[in-house]
Amino acid sequence: MDLGIFCKSTLDGEVVDHCLSSLIGIGQNTDPSYLDWLMKAWGWTLAVAGLGLVIALSLGAVMGTLRTLPRDSTFNRLLVHLSTAWVELFRNIPILVQVFLWYHVIPAFIPVLKAFPSYLLVSIALGFFTSARIAEQVRAGIQSLPSGQKAAATALGLTTFQSYRYIILPMALRIVIPPLTSESMNLIKNSSVAFAVSVPELTLFAMQAQEETSHGVEIYLAVTVLYALSAFAVNRVMTHIEKRSRIPGFIAPNSEATAH
Amino acid sequence: MKNKHIAKAGLISVTLLLSALNSYAASQTMDKIKSSGAVTMGVRESSIPMSYTTGDSRFDGYHVEICRMILGGIKDKLGMNTLRINYQPVTSQNRVPLVQNGTVDIECGTTTNNVSRAKDVGFANTLYVEEVRIAVKANSGINSISQLAGKKIATTTGTTSVQLLRKHEKANGVNFDEVFGKDHADSFLLLESGRADAFVMDGSILAGNIANSKNPKDYKIVGEVLSTEPIAIMVRKDDPEFKAAVNAEIAKIVANGNMPKLWNKWFLSPIPPKNIVVGLELSPATKNAWANLNDKPAEDYNKK
Known about the structure:
The complex is a heterodimer. By secondary structure, chain A is mainly alpha-helical. In chain A, 68% of the residues lie in helices and 0% in strands. Chain A has one domain (9-246): MetI-like (MetI-like fold, Orthogonal Bundle). By secondary structure, chain B is an alpha/beta fold. Chain B folds into 2 domains: 31-129 and 231-301, Periplasmic binding protein-like II (D-Maltodextrin-Binding Protein, domain 2, 3-Layer(aba) Sandwich); 131-229, 3-Layer(aba) Sandwich (D-Maltodextrin-Binding Protein, domain 2), CATH 3.40.190.10. Chain B has 12 helices and 14 strands. In chain B, helix 3 packs across helix 9.
């Protein structure tokens, strides 16, 4: 074990002047060290995963909701079919294949996508893939509510939109926070596929830096720690949201354990 | 007096011979080969034409054939009738550890001999000197690295070319927009699909990918040599006797005048499985390595 490798310059392998500059912000290295590069790579991982998460949560919530619409009009039936197709399409293709599709295949048919930077395409791929999974969880959440809730909303004269907005979704989304936590953590880990289309994130850093330094053990350890740390941070944030948004008396009233 | 001299000389030569025999006996790798009747050769899956699979778990290539000749010589030296060669595919990531821990006895792939790797493994004398070049589309009008400032340059993750580009940017104050392929085929696809303007990589890899492409005429290798790297056969570090035996066989192959024939076979003639021609001319640097067999690391080649 030689953690000193992170203090070395990525250009000539010499020890840099300000080893921890990327962590504590004192001094600037003339040439970036492996630690500087590692931090930058971590930033890319978080950016890709973060953007993917925004896409996944918004699309997933919409698609999951659409799948539960009452089939009382042609338009609604169309929406149900559309969302079902969406879910089946994006959860039945491996994530790596989807990333390649977005990067290599789809831009061949839609030229405007060629101008998109690769991190955006990966975020879309990750977001769509995860949205299919989130949609299923949201649907499960909605369908777990007693049917009386919806009946009561209708009895009060609320429209379908209003009953979803004020009665069903506020309950359902609270129920599905625990599986959403898992999905968000998965998204951070899945973002490692971005290396395959030239996003300079942690996995690409690991593969390249271990080749340059021949200190694979230290490099992979550092990358492992950062992935674990990122996923755990997401877990903590979601747990916090879960606690803050909890309604007393609703779902498992005296169960503190759900938060852990 | 004269007789005494002869006797002395005889004694010395017998001692030398004995110590030579002793040293062979002390080689763990040679002992293992002798006792098990088998040797494990590390090979690459797709480093055409150096070391690659021709399908059905068969491996061939310039370095693989040389290694088979070396092992044939060692088999004779050990007085064995047969020697079974087990092929173990390796990757850029695991080749050094596999040689270090003894899984692979002799690695015949495309490993650059450099100082940092030489701390972990031994390198036989160089028989192939790689030059890092630039591949572009033939109609791009790019002829030199100086024209690539601000352009998109593809290279493969986990290769020395990535660091080379970084150093070049720093030394010349230019900026490249680097894109990284996950393997060489992927990097070439970036060039082919127009996501990159150039592909910077080892000359043999560029030539191999161009030869394999849909329209080889659409691409050309241009510009100055960006870096020169000796590619060498890798053996264990703690077994200098085995390395010496390998080098002795290499010297024999070179002395027999086999190298130009081998070059012609792998680099200038159609090779299996698809009968493509790599079309890489013998470089002066490689010719020089054959004439002066040595195991100098890459750092010695790029001193200016």
